[in-house]
Amino acid sequence: MNFHADLGDSEVKKTAFEIKRAYFGYAHQFSDNLVGQVILDVQLNILHDKYYAFLKIASLTWTPVKGLKINGGMISPKQFKTQERFWGYRYLYKSYQDEYKMGPSADLGITAEYKFNDYISVDGAFLNGEGYKHVQIKYPDFKVAAGVTVHPVKDLSIRLYYDNMNNKDTSLTTDYKAVQSTYSAFIGYKLKKKFRIAGEYNYQKQFKNMDNKDLFGFSFYSTYVISKKFEVFGRVDLLNSNKPEGETENWFYKGDGTLYLAGLQYNPVKGVKLSANYRFFSFAKPNEGDRKNPLSMIYLNVEFKLN
């Protein structure tokens, strides 16, 4: 839930109250090593001014031996979970790969994760690839993914990730049949639960299976915990696209740019989070005719959980 005020120079001011989404779920433990979970995601569709419900999670989690975890069904992949947890403020802004559509937060398929020890774990996935909003089972489209997470010393996290996805949809032109690949590297450090800082680089080759159209960039974020109830945070995202051969501008010039985000979070009671934050997005500068004014917004966000 949020209230936001548009401080920019656009003719149409985007100032309003919003409840963007609500989750409803249930989990059941069948045995010591088998857990089932179902979660519905009710989202606001801004274009249609209506709420739509999606099946976000319908999964079984099996831990046959110590260190090994297998998930199947409509599941939450590991693609950017490490970054999302480190960022810590998904209710007000998604992590980089999620925000810029480099991968869905839930998908049909199976994942496996094995933790060797306190220092290293590996994970793999075999997924449909289209996500939970547009479930496609007509064509043999699959995403294969692998990742490794390392903690070389206490409070330091490093993650490397790769995935590869085809597109066999016969209704699309050849421009949308290129193989999509994602490369990601993350490093984050926590200091005595008072301070954390992280950076990540993401590169998606042939974004959404579009031939010769790549997205890439950095994200840097940090948090300082003032007390049990207050913390301040900041973030900078740089989003870029390539320039296809024969073109004068980057193919995603209408979205390329730099995000600056900073704010304060207040936890009045357990389960409730309040945040006041400022966001500024400066678009890349293409030709004069396509130049866009920066976005300048103030947000008041609220998250609450009912257990």
Tell me about this structure.
With 307 residues, this protein is mainly beta. It has a single domain (2-304), classed as Porin, CATH 2.40.160.10. The protein contains two helices and 17 strands. It has helices spanning 81-87, 96-99; strands spanning 2-6, 16-18, 21-31, 34-45, 50-62, 68-75, 107-115, 120-127, 143-150, 156-165, 180-191, 195-205, 215-225, 230-241, 257-266, 272-283, 295-304. It has a 17-stranded antiparallel sheet, with helices on one face. A hairpin with a 4-residue loop joins strand 13 (215-225) and strand 14 (230-241). The mean pLDDT is 91.
Number of helical elements = 2
Mean pLDDT: 91
* Number of beta-strand segments: 17
Poorly predicted ranges (pLDDT <50, ≥5 residues)?
Answer: none
| Reported CATH architecture | Beta Barrel
Shape: globular
How would you name the CATH homologous superfamily? Porin
Helical content stands at under 10%
Biggest pleated-sheet summary: 17 strands, antiparallel
Number of domains: 1
| SSE pattern | EEEEEEHHEEEEEEEEEEE
Structural class: mainly beta
Strand content: over 45%
